[in-house]
Amino acid sequence: MTLDDLRQDLWDSYADLSPQMKVAASYILENPADVAFKSVRQLAKAADVHPSTIVRLAQVVGFSTFEPFRAVFQDGVQAREVRFEERAAALQKDGRWDADSQIFFDIGKATLGNLTSLFQPDTQKAVQRIANEILKATRVYVAGYRSSFAFAHYLAYAGKIAMPKMQLLESPDGSHFDVLGQANDNDLIILFTFAPYASEGGRLLTVAKKRGCKIIAITDTMSSPAVPFADMGLFVPMTGPQLLPSLVPAASACELILAECTRLGGSSVVDNLRAFRDQVHAVEGYLSPLEPAISLDEDEDL
To answer: What are the CA-CA distances from residue 232 to residues 13, 15, 30, 128, 217 (Å)?
Structure first.
């Protein structure tokens, strides 16, 4: 079991936990390094619960004792900080990008491996839960900062065509936070955030939590600072030797969510898509494909 799998199990079990076990689970989600390196008693003291609560929580997610539970955290918190200059230096060591360049194939293998890890039954379940929350919410605010903005823009743009209640949170001056003044517990926040984690995302999560919004985090690891705030989420593998963490799986995650929303959305989604098509055609928003050219010889044969 990976740390991300264990995190998902804790999230799935959270609603049925006792109040004390919820306290322990929240602390564990927020402080994975403490779980990795503290004893049961030290961890219980830090979380302000009884040691037996920690042990029972480990049992809830399938471990007979605390030690194998902690081992998962020890394996999972070893991820290093993303350093762009180190990635660039590693790419340059490979020399010219020619027939002998291994980096070309390493990137391909990493991308395919990330996609294989994404397209698993656990991901399908998470996508179904996310789609249901999107459809239930009164308003859906989508955000992402820095390199994560592209995914927020894509999900919000494509999603709004089918579900007008979806809205991208963006503004050059940061005033998009003002929009959340009208948000409440019927609304949903979807945040894309991947290492290195943009500090703007932390502010968004703090505001959203105060407004009572449900929060979905689409992120990369258990150590993501979005995890303690999120009610549910989707973990996207981002490994590889690229200059930036691989972004291909996150784009696939957007497509999966949109497809599931469409599948579950019923006739209203179809009606919205038809209305959007008519609206774009009315202003000639799309160019027609070019007709294939016909050579003189072909014309003579006709």
So the answer is: 11, 11, 14, 11, 7
CB 14 within 8 Å of CB 25? yes
Residue 233: strand pairing partners: 217
Rounded-to-integer distance, Cα 229 and Cα 215, Å = 7
Q: Give the other-Cβ count within 10 Å of 59's Cβ.
A: 13
Q: What is the DSSP letter of 64?
A: S
Percent of the chain with pLDDT over 90: 33
Report d(CA 80, CA 83) in Å as an integer.
Answer: 9
User: Using CA atoms, how far apart are residues 219 and 253, in angstroms rounded to an integer?
Assistant: 11
Residue 232, beta-bridge partner list: 216
Whether the predicted pLDDT of 143 surpasses 50? yes
Reported as a single tens digit per residue, the pLDDT across 242-272 is 777 778 999 999 999 999 999 998 888 888 8
In whole angstroms, give the CA distance from residue 198 to residue 177: 15
- Whole-model pTM over 0.90: no
Quick one: which of 141, 131, 146 has its CA closest to 178? 141
